Amino acid sequence: MFKKFAASPVIIAVVLALALLFWLLSGDNYRAKKQVPAKQQLAEQQLPLVETRWSEAKPYQLTEVAQGQVLPWRSVSIKSQRAGTVTEVLTEQGERVSQGDKFLRLSDEGRSALLAQAKAILTLRQDELASARALSKSQFLSTTDLTRLQSELAKAEAEFEHARLALQQIEPEAPFDGVVDRRYVEVGDMVQIGTELLSLVQIDKLKVTAQIPQQQVKALTEGQNVTLRLLDGRELSGTLSFISFAADTDTRSFYIEVTVANPQLLRVAGGSATVTVQLPPVPAHLISPALLSLDNTGKLGVSVVDEQQQVVFYPVHILSANNEGARVSGLPARARLITQGAGFVKTGDTVRVESQAQGTRP
Fold it and tell me: Residue 27 phi/psi, 5° resolution?
């Protein structure tokens, strides 16, 4: 009985402690129910954080570069149209000539006599026909005889022209102004029809040819300025004068021609040159190549943050790349580029933004 009574204070203490703990817990729970949690603040703290910087587009001068071949404006091989022996050389290699100048002279081979004979026959036939027409008016000559005389006159005219050309062609002439680049015959050489006598080139104006890939040809227009860099470092200026309308079936590239003035007659024809076509400037952003990424379709682009704090992916085209960075087109004129954290967000995500420190790389 004594032991039972002694244990009662301990039991009472435990019961009181439990009651006090229950009261404390119920009070905190009651206050929690009365206070509305800051849902927006919690949601904002859970948004992904990205680092950004503003980028302004600037005009960038586009160029198209290709390897070209420098050619004379005109080039022709002068070949013999008559057989004979070279009796006189009238021009030397490297000499400038004008259209109509004679290069050399071949042996006559009786051509002057044939021309004189043809001329005499032509005069005879002309006189015969004139007399016949006078007789035909008096009906002393039949129509058949008149027609025969007209035919004989036409034959005489053809023979005269043939003899005249034969004599003229033993002295080949320059078809245009130019320079005698090579001469292949000397006095005393015997030539046949088709023998190459010399080559004539016009180099006061040059023609540069090149091939442009089909992806870039749409940016070209006739009249654009072109810079030519020769292998020795010299530069010439020209104008894009022709763009082919159909691509080469083997290379899928388009043939172009560039016209270049060469008043100093520089000896560059036949060589190669780097052709740089000046294209219209386009707005471009200078960025670090590390900012480039691929979307789900494999397109290359850059992630930016728009005015609604959402991630937007813009496909871009790389215009150039060097030690400064990569210049790209396809972004808005002013864009907030994601410089850190782009790999942890996707298009459409709402993000928290932290500006990049000044002085960092693009």
Answer: -70, -45
Q: Which residues contact 184 (CB under 8 A, 6 or more apart)?
A: 196, 197, 198
In a domain? residue 85:
no
The reply to whether 325 and 274 lie within a common domain is no
Give residue-wise pLDDT tens across range 68-86: 999 999 999 999 999 999 9
Q: Which domain holds residue 130?
A: 110-169
Q: Are strands 293-294 and 96-97 parallel, antiparallel or unpaired?
A: unpaired
Question: Phi and psi (nearest 5°) for 258?
Answer: -120, 130
Q: Which residues contact residue 319 at a Cβ distance below 8 angstroms, ignoring those fewer than 6 apart?
A: 60, 62, 282, 284, 327, 328, 329
Do 212 and 258 have their domain in common? yes
Reported as a single tens digit per residue, the pLDDT across 1-59 is 444 444 566 676 666 666 666 665 665 554 444 555 555 554 556 889 999 999 999 99
Domain boundary among 236, 259, 278: 278
